[in-house]
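As a warm-up, study this chain.
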Amino acid sequence: MMLRLILMALIGWVIWRLLAPAKTPKMKPPPATPGVENVLACAHCGVFVPEREMLTDADGRRYCCAEHKKLGGGA
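Now compare it with the structure written out below.
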């Protein structure tokens, strides 16, 4: 009697595993792509640099580094 109960439980478990939908891991959404960023030319050397990395003088001219800002516009 006990063997029959164990056998029925085992058959039930096997059927449940076969009929249950396979658990697939949830896919993560792709990472957000960075936004478009303005690039501007240095007033001294003309090299293009992202706007957020540029240095600005009192007159509003933008430079790629502190040395070029110190030297001023036009080489």
